[in-house]
Amino acid sequence: MCGSRMTGSRTKQGHAYACSVEGQDHRLTIAGRQTDDLLTLLVEQRLAHVDLSGEPAAPQEWDGEARLRAIPRQIKELMAAFGGGVLSGAIVFPQVQALEAEQAALERDRPRAATRPSVASAYAFPTLDPRPAPRGRRLPRRGGGRRPGRAPRGRRTG
Fold it and tell me: Residue ranges under compositional bias (Basic residues) (predicted)?
């Protein structure tokens, strides 16, 4: 609604969602049931156009991924050569530093999508029930079922 984090709250009519922008004198509130119904409809419409019958889509490999996988192996080989006395520290350590710098640059430049597999399959949503959600859902109470501001029954406070 206003671009900030939303919170939920109980109302006499059920529940509502609200957001407020820090430093501004306004707070926006929207009815929970109507918002839930609208979001459910939008998700159902979106899923109606997605093929969920196939296997998970293989993530496309980023161009630098192979190089990123090769760098630790190269560092290990250099350190093994140093440990075996084949190469001196004057040769090995600058090479390792350069490889570590290259690795850091590749990780920094790696696209966000390359760090997460993309899945366009029903396997991504094993609990997805294609039927509409039942009306009259109840929101759980805050604080593990207790009413805010009240001590559990049978216990004294203070």
Answer: 134-158
Are the CB atoms for 68 and 107 separated by under 8 Å? yes
DSSP class of residue 18 equals E
Write the single-letter amino acid at 46.
R
In this structure, what token pair is assigned to residue 46? 């979106």
Which residues of the chain form beta strands (DSSP E)? 6-11, 14-20, 27-31
pLDDT digits (tens, 9 = 90+) for 29-62: 888 888 888 889 888 888 888 777 777 766 677 8
Per domain, the residue ranges of the chain are 6-57+119-124, 65-109
Calpha distance 36→44 (Å, rounded): 12
CA 72, CA 62: separation in Å to the nearest integer? 18
* Tally of CB atoms within 10 A around 126: 6
As a whole number of angstroms, the distance between CA 30 and CA 15 comes to: 9
Q: Using CA atoms, how far apart are residues 53 and 65, in angstroms rounded to an integer?
A: 29
Strand partners, 30: 17
The whole-model pTM stands at 0.38
Nearest Cα to 58, choosing from 125, 103, 123, 109?
123
